[in-house]
Structures are given as structure tokens and as C-alpha cells.
Write a structure and sequence with these properties.
By secondary structure, the chain is α+β, with helices and mostly antiparallel strands. It contains 18 helices and 21 strands. The longest helix is centred in the middle third of the chain and has 17 residues, at 247-263. The protein is globular and about 55 Å long.
Length: 497
């Protein structure tokens, strides 16, 4: 086992990795930018190294600075988390060349799956079902490529992910401008402006299979997650298992995922993503060669610590479980909490967190990278935390998530908490009728119902509590603001569903 691991990331995932290291008896080293000097991940780690200014290009994307931090603190390995350099093959190779262990797959596997065009070729050769697609060889042939794929279609970045470099096209006349826009965005985000065309599978569900593979030839799956509730191709609600997947379909999905993982000699944790159409046809989407944001729902239903599994595999330990040992139990749901104003087209919100009270009920988990007093930076992804719950069945988990969101109190930046409550309470979600068009179909515009007087009074009372300036009546033993607010919470009305 490693003695000390550098965490090449920030926010909630850096906190998560630091805690996994602590459980394993391994020291952790955080890195931080100017904006994160007092961040929670810096506090949670055993040591911290400052690596640059707030912009990610000056800090969390600086390979040399990260490797210097690892060397100066005598680390054995580097965990990239997700985002930033997690799927950067050059970074993984540089870590290895420095004599450190990269906690993730080999650079060749990252390269193979990171290029979406090449990944499709490998998947097809492995017998994984693919949606129709075509490469673009010059602007003059773009129209012919579009006709080959058929409308509607997606223009997709070959070297990207996270919803960037993607455009939907429904009319042939819009194809040229969509290609140019996707190329500009892909060039800015990934330094690679290659794009290709792929048939848009409308009304599809987004299903993914979690795989684990060690360095001794063992490769297993941990079941599926459904991640169909998305905004701008970004997941906001995830669950496991999927309400649409039966044993036959699960066998088809997991067989395809394991075939692809073996085709690239995969090691460590990875996720193979699929689209599932209304006729139960599956289509390969991509493979993410890293830990997923939504890994907690898999941890809930399988009991396997995904981050510890990554570390143990990287330390050359064989898998300690067999496929027959994996028996998912119950149902788990995760919601991502963003510092965004859902009423203003989800505009990012930057402010100090004046008060934070996380839900603490049974079977409830709050993975956070924030704390009171911390200012949400605008330089990074606006996700502040992930709230996940477990229930004996999907309805139990759904109700528990609604109550947990209502109990979550956050004053400072705008957040998506109330929006998420309405998603979870929508009849279509409750019935399991979810797909990637859910928000466009059911919540095209959203307004938060608010009792302005109640909200203003609650905020004033909580602000007084945060500033430790109790009124004379409170000091004399009268009820605190928490006792007098009744059922009010920062999200929802606190009443019964």
C-alpha cells in the first residue's frame, strides 16, 4: 500500500479522496490555488501545497507544478479525481515517468477512449452496438455526411466530454453553422477542433455500467446507473439501479461494457456509457476512464468503496471480490447541488457561504467541498456538493431525497436545491418515466414559489445566528432562531410531500 498520495484536484472529490486515504491509513497531500487556500479539501488533507493563481490553467492544470508538489512532499502516487487532468493521457504518462503511480488506467487506454472516433472503432470491433455516425472530411462533404447519418443528429467533439463541443441539428441548412460552433468550443475546451456526426437518439435514457479491473486479469461490473436527468448534456440526478433495466437488458449492457474494457486492457475504475431507446435498443456513447461524479449511488447499492478500490488496484492488489459477490441491494439516488440561479438560466453564483446545515438523517450522505465562510469561486465548475440517499426501493429513496433536500439549509450563493425538489416530485420522475429530454419536456421554464415575507424573516434570523449576535430574549434562554422558524427551510416548504 502507498504511504502518501497527492490529490490533483479540488472541491468535493478532493475531500472524498482525502477521507478514503485516511481510512486506509495513507497520508494525503492537497494542492490548492489562490482561490482555495482555505477550502475544505485543504483542511481535510494531511498536508497542502499551493500551486498557483485561481485560473485552472495557472494551477490545477499545471502538470509541472503538480509533479513538483508530489516530489517535494515525497508522495508515492497521484489521484486525479475527475475533471481537470483526470483523463489526460500525457499527465498520466508524466506521473509514471516521474516514478509515481497514477491512480487510474494506463495512458494507452485513456488515449484510446479519449478520442471518441477511435473509441467507436474499438467498440464496434468488440461487438458493442453503435448509433449511425460519420466523420467530416472538409466542409464540402459535411452535407453528404449529414445525409449519411440522417436527421436529427449531433455534432460531437472527437476529443471532448462534459457536454462541450456538442450541437443538435434538425435541419440540413443548420449543419454548417453547428459544425463551426462545435469546433470553436472544442478548440477552446480541449485544444482539438475535430468533430464528427452521430445520429441523435431522441427520448433515450442515459445508462452507464461501472467496471473495475485489476492488474491480474480480473474484470467485473458493479451494475448500472441511470443518469437521464440532464441539463445541457450535464447530469444533475443519478440513480441505481435504473427503473428501465431488467435482467435481460442488464446482461446485454454489462456484457458489452466488459467486452470494451477487455478490448483496451483496462485497469482501475471506468464507466461505459450507453443510450437506451424506447424499443430497448442500446447504443454505445463513450467510456469515461476515471472515477465518475455519481459513484456514491453505486457505493450505496453494492457496499464497495470506489475510491479505496481505485487505490488498492493501483497498489497492485488483486480484486478482493468476484462477479458472483456483487448483489446490489435497494435503490440509491444522487442530486448534484450547483451554485447556480435556476430562475436565471442557471447563471453561476459566487458568494460567501454564510450558513450551511447539511441533512443528517439515516441513509443520507452529503459529499461536499464547501464550508461556512468559503467563497464560491467563479473560476471552476459550480458544483458545491452531492446529496445521495439509499432506500429499500426507488420510491423510498425518492421520498428520502425530497426530505433531505428540504432539510438542507444554505445561505449565501444561489443554488439549485429547490429546482431539484421539483424534479424529484414531478409525476413523470416518480413513475420512472425519465429520459434525456426530461427537463425540456416537463420543466422548460421554472420559477421558485416563495413566500417573500417568510423567507425574509428566516434569512434575517439565520443571519443573526451566523454572526453570533443573539437578541436579548435569546440570551435570556428564549428559543433560538432554529426553534422558532417552524417548518421553514432554505429549500422547499418543509411540509409533507
Amino acid at each position: 500500500m502507498f504511504r502518501r498520495i497527492l490529490i490533483a484536484n479540488r472541491g468535493e472529490i478532493a475531500v472524498r479522496i482525502a477521507r478514503a486515504c485516511r481510512d486506509l491509513g495513507v497520508e494525503s497531500v492537497a494542492v490548492c490555488s489562490d482561490a482555495d487556500r482555505d477550502a475544505l479539501h485543504v483542511i481535510e488533507a494531511d498536508r497542502a501545497v499551493h500551486i498557483g493563481a485561481a485560473p485552472a490553467t495557472d494551477s490545477y492544470l499545471r502538470v509541472e507544478a503538480i509533479l513538483e508538489a508530489a516530489a517535494s512532499t515525497d508522495c508515492d502516487a497521484v489521484h486525479p479525481g475527475y475533471g481537470f487532468l483526470a483523463e489526460n493521457a500525457a499527465f498520466a504518462r508524466a506521473v509514471g515517468d516521474s516514478g509515481l503511480v497514477f491512480i487510474g488506467p494506463a495512458p494507452l487506454a485513456i488515449e484510446a477512449m479519449g478520442d471518441k472516433i477511435r473509441a467507436r472503432e474499438i467498440a464496434g470491433a468488440a461487438g458493442v452496438p453503435l448509433p449511425p455516425a460519420a466523420t467530416i472530411e472538409g466542409a464540402a462533404k459535411a452535407r453528404a455526411a449529414g445525409d449519411e447519418v440522417g436527421m436529427p443528429l449531433l455534432v460531437k467533439a472527437a476529443g471532448g466530454g462534459g457536454g462541450k463541443g456538442m450541437r443538435t441539428v434538425r435541419e440540413t441548412g443548420d449543419l454548417a453553422s453547428a459544425i463551426e460552433a462545435a469546433r470553436r468550443e472544442a478548440r477552446a475546451a480541449f485544444g482539438d477542433d475535430r468533430v464528427y456526426l452521430e445520429r441523435l437518439v431522441e427520448g433515450a435514457r442515459h445508462i452507464e455500467i461501472q467496471v473495475l479491473a485489476d492488474q491480474h486479469g480480473n474484470c467485473i461490473h458493479l451494475g448500472e446507473r441511470e443518469c437521464s436527468i440532464q441539463r445541457r448534456h450535464q447530469k444533475i440526478v443519478e440513480e441505481s439501479p435504473s427503473p428501465a433495466v431488467d435482467q435481460r437488458l442488464r446482461a446485454q449492457l454489462t456484457t458489452a461494457a466488459l467486452s470494451l474494457a477487455r478490448a483496451v486492457d483496462y485497469r482501475n475504475a471506468g464507466t461505459v456509457e450507453f443510450l437506451l431507446d424506447g424499443d430497448a435498443n442500446i447504443y454505445f456513447l463513450e467510456m469515461n476512464t476515471r472515477l465518475q461524479v455519481e459513484h456514491p449511488v453505486t457505493e450505496w447499492v453494492t457496499g464497495i468503496d470506489m475510491v479505496q478500490a481505485q487505490i488498492r488496484i493501483a497498489a497492485n492488489e488483486p480484486l478482493w471480490v468476484r462477479q458472483s459477490d456483487i448483489e446490489p441491494r435497494g435503490h440509491a439516488i444522487e442530486c448534484r447541488l450547483y451554485a447556480e440561479d435556476a430562475q436565471r438560466d442557471f447563471a453561476p453564483s459566487s458568494a460567501a457561504i454564510e450558513l450551511l446545515r447539511a441533512p443528517a438523517g439515516p441513509w443520507t450522505r452529503f459529499d461536499s467541498g464547501i464550508r461556512e465562510g468559503f467563497v464560491i469561486p467563479l473560476e471552476y465548475d459550480p458544483m458545491m456538493a452531492k446529496l445521495s440517499v439509499w432506500g429499500a426501493c426507488r420510491e423510498d429513496a425518492r421520498r428520502r431525497m425530497v426530505e433531505a433536500l428540504r432539510e438542507l439549509a444554505l445561505i449565501g450563493p444561489s443554488s439549485t436545491g429547490s429546482f431539484l425538489i421539483d424534479v424529484l416530485q414531478h409525476p413523470a420522475f416518480a413513475s420512472g418515466a425519465t429520459n434525456t429530454s426530461f427537463l425540456d419536456q416537463h420543466m422548460p421554464s421554472w420559477t421558485q414559489p416563495t413566500d417573500d415575507l417568510t423567507l425574509a424573516a428566516a434569512v434575517a434570523a439565520l443571519h443573526q445566528l451566523v454572526n453570533h449576535s443573539p437578541s436579548p430574549s435569546t440570551a435570556a434562554g428564549e428559543p433560538s432562531p432554529w426553534q422558532t422558524l417552524g417548518s421553514w427551510r432554505s429549500f422547499g416548504d418543509g411540509g409533507s410531500e
